[in-house]
Amino acid sequence: MDVSRKSHRFTPSIRETIQGFGAETTAHGIPRVIDRPRYRSKLFWAVLVLALFGVFIFQAVRLLRDYYTFNTKIELVNSEEVEFPAITVCNLNRIRLSRLPNNKRWESINNQTAYESNQNRLERYGITTSSVFTTSSVSDYLPDEKSHDRIQRDVDDGGDDDYDWFRDSIAEEEYRWPHSMPYPGYRMVGLPTTHLGSLASPYLGILPPSPTKEELREMGHRREDFILECRFNKQRCEADDFRVIQNKQYGNCFTFNGVTSTQSSPRRVTKAGSGFGLHLTLYIEHDEYIGAMTEDTGVKIVAHPRDILPHPEDLGLSFSPGFTSNIGLRQVEIKRLPYPHGNCTYGKDRRHLSDDVYEYNIISCQKRCLQDGLADRCGCVTDIYNDYDSFPQCNRTNRICRQTVEKSFYQNQMDCKCPAKCREFIYNTQATSSVWPSEKHLDYWRKRIERPRGFIQHPAFTAIQNIGEARKNLVKVKVYFEELNYELVEQVPAHTFESAVGTIGGLIGLYIGFSLITVSEILVLFYDVARLMIVKAFYKETVDGSES
Prior knowledge:
The radius of gyration is 38 Å and the shape is elongated. The protein contains 18 helices and 15 strands. The protein starts with a helix and ends with a helix. It is an alpha+beta fold. Strand 6 and strand 7 form a beta hairpin. Strands 1, 4, 5, 9, 12, 13, 14 and 15 form an eight-stranded mixed beta sheet that branches.
């Protein structure tokens, strides 16, 4: 008992321990709070230390909040050689008129009596083609509501459901019958006056079917006909250097320098300017165009990375025949930050179209999301991607389901989750055009193009015999880099871990004079105080037990 009391007498008190810490600590300000003899002085230093500690906490919280943000850095990268992008070219016409099969599926287009049939149908409702185009007011010749209903049923009963957009694209309040229309003629079969020209066309009421991949392969444009001339970096290239990629809207498209082309390694360029790059002469076969399926004449061209599936229906430039079109490219590399600074993806965990061949990008992911929704909920799809070979095309029986899914997709109600890619290349384009060929140049060009043996059997042979046909059928394109330097747009963290630790250390040293040594001293102080409290509690329990 006496020994225990004696040992406890030599144990320092908590107050003595704190005073010892104040005398020895490397922290600034805290010793002043502890060793000042007057309470007013202690209070002053205590308030000052607490105020500066509060400022430190405020600054540290702002720093931690900014740790998850990023800045954007733009840099011009000098390069002596760059990889040439993949170039996808499409004819704006999907199906060749001469290849239309004579069967029921294509009867609405292939039937040579379509014009007469439509005339008879219009006359049945009291409408004549001449009356539409010789009167100043078409409203005098509009059908009554009963006749309109019959016409509407005829349109509803004909054609493939793929072309529901023909009417669905008109706003509901504009399409609704009958009488408060914004201008005369709007009631005509739910179409605005600008469409009345189709009354004189053999295509009135014709809704063409959506061709399958097999039909496109057989009836679409062929690369050996479409690509008359090809040169890359002043060296000749062949039609076999282009890979066929089928597209629902444009049929057979052709990709040069693609990831699955015959060229195993990517083509590169070491010189800029229109004299280099890819030069093409394209033959669009104007006489093969089908008016009911194609509104425009010409080609669609997309420059894209080799490992990205092209989407010419959403991207690219359109060019008309009869012109030389120069497409200057400027490469832009974009680097984004993943979590926790951003929300980009490298694409390994995201589903997208043809993910066994091509890399991830936003458009492929979004289109995959839509087709997955249609396949899951409707059992059909509306496109011809290889991913959905086992699903049939949506038709009239799937119409309501299809429209419900598409509405959800367009209104962003589907959980698609398609973030931007962490690293991607884009190609800014600048296009200029001039009339081609000139009358004086046509003879020279024709002699040059006719030199290869067998060209007389080529479909373009008759089309280049006079300037009018040549300008209706030929498109010349030059795709090149305007300069080899490229722009790097990079997201960089506002603070790295090292810089954040350094900044917090600077703040804590500036405001309250702390360092890592000081932090260690405070931890030792907490340990000593806790040990003393345990010892005192144990001593009190021992004394109470002895006295009892």
